Here is the input.
Amino acid sequence: MKLIVGIIKPFKLDDVKDAVKDLGVQGLTVSDVQGFGRQRGHTEVYRGAEYEIDFVPKVRIEVLVDDGDVDRVAQRLVETARTGKIGDGKVWVVPVEAAWRIRTGETGSDAL
Amino acid sequence: MEFNSGDTAWVLASAALVMFMTPGLALFYGGMVRSKNVLSMLMNNVFCLGLISVLWAVVVFSLAFAGTGKWIGNFDFFGLKDVVDTFPPGLALTIPPLLFMAYQMMFAVITPALISGAVADRMKYGAWVVFITIWVVVCYAPVAHWVFAPAGWLFRRGALDFAGGTVVHINAGIAALAVVLVLGKRRGWPNHPMPPHSLPLTLIGAGILWFGWFGFNAGSALAGNGVAAQALVNTHLAAAAAMLGWLVAERLKSGHATTLGAASGLVAGLVAITPCAGFVGGMAPLYIGAVAGVLCYLAVSLKFRFGYDDSLDVIGVHLVGGIVGSLLLGFFADSTINEVVTDEGVFLGGGVDLLVDQVVAVGATIVFTFVLTYLIAFVLDKVTPGGIRVTEEDEEIGLDQTQHAETGYALERV
Here is the structure.
């Protein structure tokens, strides 16, 4: 099992969610985060005082998948989340040792 | 006693309008602080409605308006004694004296609340309570007496202040400067960004202030008449012109017209027109508002130049706006608008007599209140265990949690 993590632009969430569902993935988790990579922040002005805001709002998506599904799900995620402009984000894969479905106690791939 | 029901009805409504300005101010300021301190700012303001109302009824009204002294009132009206059927000496009004007391009460309530914007994020709540209790007696009552009571020495000199440019705005503004010099800067100011956490709250507050200010200024005519109408028009036009003035200056200097700029600009105009409201006419409110909008915009950056942390620009907007309005009154006062004007403004052909009186009034208020407020804050700081400022740790955690054991936005909890 693997955990696919994606940091994407917030307005791409709906597209990404639909694409991932089309691939048969049963569930995902989304959280609001902030961060920066090569995309710099921006400047805000309040009563003449300038503030450098380094962080940019992003959305973090996490999807648990079987080893065999990693490549196509990750690829789909990358393509759908891409706008071509700076700040599109990143996708990475993390190995998962064990997983349980809470309601039934199923483990391993049955938990996905 | 004969009362005029139209006059009385309007001043009754105005008392309610001015009362509404205190929660409006609370929101205006509250939106500008960081979320961990929003309740503290709201509380510092709203609590004034509780504390100052009681102090006013019991003793401060009497100190401001009773007796015939030049410098301060007396205890003739202590505990509202005789207020129902006795006018303050020199005031022959067509409204019940009790209503006059109630209307003035709303001014006394909001004036210390104005100071709260300067002490944001770092003053102990208990120290704030003690501070405003002393301040309203020692600084508000005397200045109100000097300017609003016919026996007061500035009133007798001929200084004009229709609704409280000196008594409220210059008074609170200079007091704010005195307090922040004792209190010190917020940790991390000015290098660490501390932007407003909710400008929607600030804009709601600004709208309430503009609305309530019709009662603040037009109500100060103490009658439903032409002067009140002029004051309402002046109030509105000054706010409008000041908003534009601030926005233009802002756009030119830092590249954007901002919502905070619009809200701040309109307030600056309202402050500046306060002393002038029932004494000027024609296009004067537009000039006064525009000048206030531009000058107050420029004034708010003085704190960076001089290194004092006036967190929400009480000095930049209320002190500077109040001075601008009080002095411009010396130029624009018009006896055809209000027969109370005996010395016309400079532009109306009256020479500098009124302007000199205005300078004296402005100067006296500034010196008196600065010295006394500094003393109050200084002594309070020495006498309070740990000083009037919160500990570094409490400042980091936030005042809502540490002073009030509350959270403004419990959004993570379902």
In short: Chain B is about 65% helix and 0% strand. Chain B has a mean pLDDT of 97. The CA atoms of residues 376 and 394 of chain B lie 24 Å apart. Chain B touches chain A through 18 residues (CB under 8 Å).
